[in-house]
Specification:
Bound molecules: zinc ion
Helix content: 25-40%
Shape: globular
Strand order of the largest sheet: 3-2-1-4
Order of helices and strands: HEEEHHHE
Strand content: 15-25%
Radius of gyration: 14 Å
Structural class: alpha+beta
Number of helices: 4
Number of strands: 4
Length: 158
Amino acid sequence: MSEINELYQELILDHSKSPRNFRVLEAPDRKAEGYNPLCGDRITLYFQMAGDRIREITFQGLGCAICKASTSLMTVELKGKLKKEAEEVFRNFHAMLTGQEKNFDKAKLGKLAVFSGVSEFPVRVKCATLPWHTLHSALEGKQQTVSTESPSAEWTTG
Ligand code: ZN
């Protein structure tokens, strides 16, 4: 078990040190900003859509290791996915982080499953979910900055 944890930590460390898709996207179709005042994480997501499919997704910003790694892994997982597939991944990810074990399918999370340990640290859950709330806002076409401390940041699947 501890070997697995080490592997997970390595993956998070790797993505926080050398985040993937970490660049400004030229002429994005959509763009959204997310802010987590509790930690100071601040990110901007950029998208190019092809209909309902996420053709390209990149990000910029400053955040802690968990936030950066989570955003980096999210961009890797979601590139090429449909909007509704992205929502399904987030639903599972959110259930995992909030400890609703019955309600998620780890197999659907791919590498994002490395964040399962974060559920033990409620403050860090916001760091890990910030990019996802921001994604949701962008896909909904909202303009304002997403804050983890505002009720509008809540993801609704309905
Ligand atoms: Zn953070």
